[in-house]
Amino acid sequence: MSKIFHRTPIQIPLHASSGDGAYLIDQDGKYYLDGCGGAAVSCLGHSDQFVKQAMREQLDKLAYAHTGFFTSAPAETLAENLIARAPGELDKVYLVSGGSEAMETALKLARQYFIDKGEPKRHKVIARQQSYHGNTLGALATGGNKWRRAPYAPMLFETFHIAPCYEYRHRAPNESTEYYGKRAANELESEILRLGPESVMAFVAEPVVGATAGAVPAVEGYLKRIREICDQYGILLIFDEVMCGMGRTGSLFACDQDGVAPDIMSIAKGLGAGYQPIGAMLCSRNIADTITEGAGYFKNGHTYLGHPMAAAAANAVLHRLIHDGLVGRSKEMGDKLKAALEERFGEHPHIGDIRGRGLFIGLEIVEDRETKEPFDPARQLYAQLKQVALDKGLMIYPGNGTKDGMSGDHILLAPPFIITDDQ
Ligand code: PLP
Question: Which residues 6+ apart lie within 8 Å of 283 measured at CB?
Answer without folding.
Answer: 90, 91, 92, 94, 106, 109, 263, 264, 265
